[in-house]
Amino acid sequence: MNEITYLTEQVRLAVPDLSEEQAAQLYTYYQRLVEKNQVMNLTAITEFTEVVRKHFIDSLMLFQAVDREILQTPLNVLDLGTGAGFPGIPLKIAYPALNVVLVDSLNKRVKFLQEVIDELGLKGITAIHGRAEDVGRDPMYREKMDLVVSRAVANLATLSEYCLPLVKLGGAFIPYKSGAVNEEAADAKKAIYLCAGKLEEIIPYELPGETGAEVMGRSLIVIRKTGPISKKYPRNPGKPAKEPLR
Ligand code: SAH
User: Which of 13, 54, 141, 166 could crosslink 208 through cysteines, CB 3.0-4.6 Å?
Assistant: First the structure.
């Protein structure tokens, strides 16, 4: 089976109506990712089927927490600590109506993201270079997002202080997590509360076809923004990671 056929079949397990054009965009993204990864550190996962499953499909498992019909509307979505673009770029390709802001503190990764955005001709997506602690205080972004997502960036206590300031009242912060999620949630209880969030739901999921030792205990955590947040948060750069709210 050729690579495009494989990618299309696999990704349709998460996004049934993915078009051939969208599949081609994901394939181009894969090619740029592995090319650029030769000269800078973007990802440890480079084998084609692994990129498709562990990066693309995993990013697209958000439908387990947010209905596909809602993902087809112009929500303001911010991906905090997007790295090589996960989950933000696959989400934008699969759900082009979304308005997406990608944020990362490493400028060379942001430059790569901009190249991908330009080559794929994506509109309604921006890549910004910045730290969560600064972006969360910027009136352009603070309390403006319907949805903030984040994968593999920090423990949930730290991540809640990075992400909840960006979410508007009634919106949600939905981190992608793996491992001992209940313990992590318990440890983050205070941080979530102080940042005006409420843990609504932990949604365990598996990648299609994931078996045995591969099963990572993945979950999406739905944290609702329930009120206005104190001006204290986020604290100064470095603080949320060094001294998580507890
Ligand atoms: N979300 C991607 C990348 C994870 S690596 C994925 O799942 O593959 C974590 C990324 O978070 C790195 O690119 C790092 O530069 C970024 N990061 C870490 N702390 C940050 C902060 N305080 N603000 C913005 N980005 C941050």
Answer: 13
